[in-house]
Amino acid sequence: MQNGTTNGTEYFDLKDMPHIIKALDRNQKLQPDILHLIGNTPLVKLNKIPKQEGLECDMYAKCEYLNPGGSVKDRIAYRMVLDAEEKCILKPGKSVIIEPTSGNTGIGLALAAAVKGYRCIIVLPEKMSDEKVNTLMALGAEIVRTPTEAASHDPDSNLMVARRLTKEIPDAVMLDQYNNVCNPLAHYDGTAEEILWSLDDDVDMVVIGAGTCGTVSGIGHKIKERCPKCIIVGVDPFGSILAEPEEINKSDVQMYEVEGIGYDFLPKVLDRKIIDRWVKTADKESLNMSRRLIREEGLLCGGSSGAVMWAATQAAKSLKAGQKCVVILPDNIRNYMTKFISDQWMEARGFKPVIKHDKLPWWNVVLTKNMIQPITCISHKSTTHEALEALKKSAAPVLSIVDDEGGICGVFTADNARKRLANMAASTSEDLSQFIVKKYYTVDVTQAPALGLVSRMLDISPFVVIVESVYSTRKPIGVLTSEDLLQLITDKSLNLNCS
Ligand SMILES: Cc1ncc(COP(=O)(O)O)c(C=O)c1O
């Protein structure tokens, strides 16, 4: 072959370079479609975190986030579709797949639906990331969002809305991951077999996040059959009732940020008998551990992976040198690019200390009431028309919506109202509750927040609402935008030394 030149220089002599050639997997030369690549995920040794945590055992990560759709749930989605096709419940080109999910089962189903040609409608709570929604839409799924706070039996919950839509839409089928045996079966036949094969049927502990509980129940059953000594650890966030004993957890009810694990009901696919130990997890430890898995082990995983790994660092203390602990990493970083991967997002929630800026004299100055702009408050009983009128008269881009005690229960913004009217064909004659924004940033003056924190919040939000806690009521007292903060830090009379 003739040696060509690029920009007048000889190209590298590739043939004569030192070569590193990995053994080729002769069974995987060609794949008929992407769905055939679901499963057979790698089991990877963890080298730094176990050592730093003083653990003696060997730890391995089952990288479920490397599935084609980015999560462990590809396995069950594909399995449920194949099973329903075999039973003629799903008819290609005719049936409509509808599923309530925290997103990843939806992505798995949307992936299968895209390849196989089904219409797919995914019903998921508002809490779930926009990244998941965008992935679902890119796969051609239709999205219905439901309020995060709706309990599972509430008519507005994603479960109930999906059930109603399945009745209303012709040829709709809900595969129902909460009750479908294919959910644990996909892990019994697949994930667990792979773990046992990788470790020659010798494993001492497997640590698994609990959502529908298909993963923990399916893996648990197979591993106990083949390796009865193995301890199965279930991981459940504070705020969920999946872990036993329930009495303790009832007092825990609270909102948590980690997605995909925890529920307020017991799915049929959960088999508590198979779980030897439960570990409860909190957002801060979980999300910081996800960041460590990414930074220190190079595993580009999601938030529940951190919860599982944190739980494993607690549970595996009982294991000795030479014993083997497997942690399941359910989904990937893609779902959380604007969430825990963002430092500002972590700092705004108090999951990470606010970045230091010693050279900025205003950064650590405490926000006081004289620094804030007034915010207009409207009652939660107002109409949407009244809210729009109040917003027109307001200098700030946001109104606070207050309950009968004067506590903030949400905000009304032009941006959200426009989005609802434009993208969801909503009408201003609808109730104000349809226009309320529940995800927004606040700082509480009673906690002496620094201007630096406000600035970090403004990096990711157009405004920050200032509240003052009076007993348990959070009263809105003002607002700050980037423009307001800029005026403040350049205002000579305040002597913050910025001009
Ligand atoms: C990110 C994530 N982690 C963990 C789980 C839990 O898996 P399972 O539903 O099998 O309990 C899910 C389920 O959706 C998930 O999306």
Automatic annotation (TrEMBL):
InterPro entries: CBS_dom, CBS_dom_sf, Cys_Synth/Cystath_Beta-Synth, Cysta_beta_synth, P-phosphate_BS, TrpB-like_PALP, TrpB-like_PALP_sf. Its cofactor is pyridoxal 5'-phosphate. Pfam families: CBS, PALP. PROSITE patterns: CBS, CYS_SYNTHASE. CDD domains: CBS_like. Its EC number is 4.2.1.22. Gene3D superfamilies: 3.40.50.1100, CBS-domain (3.10.580.10). Pathway: Amino-acid biosynthesis; L-cysteine biosynthesis; L-cysteine from L-homocysteine and L-serine: step 1/2. Belongs to the cysteine synthase/cystathionine beta-synthase family. Hydro-lyase catalyzing the first step of the transsulfuration pathway, where the hydroxyl group of L-serine is displaced by L-homocysteine in a beta-replacement reaction to form L-cystathionine, the precursor of L-cysteine. This catabolic route allows the elimination of L-methionine and the toxic metabolite L-homocysteine. Also involved in the production of hydrogen sulfide, a gasotransmitter with signaling and cytoprotective effects on neurons. This is Cystathionine beta-synthase. It comes from Parnassius mnemosyne. The lineage of its organism: Eukaryota, Metazoa, Ecdysozoa, Arthropoda, Hexapoda.
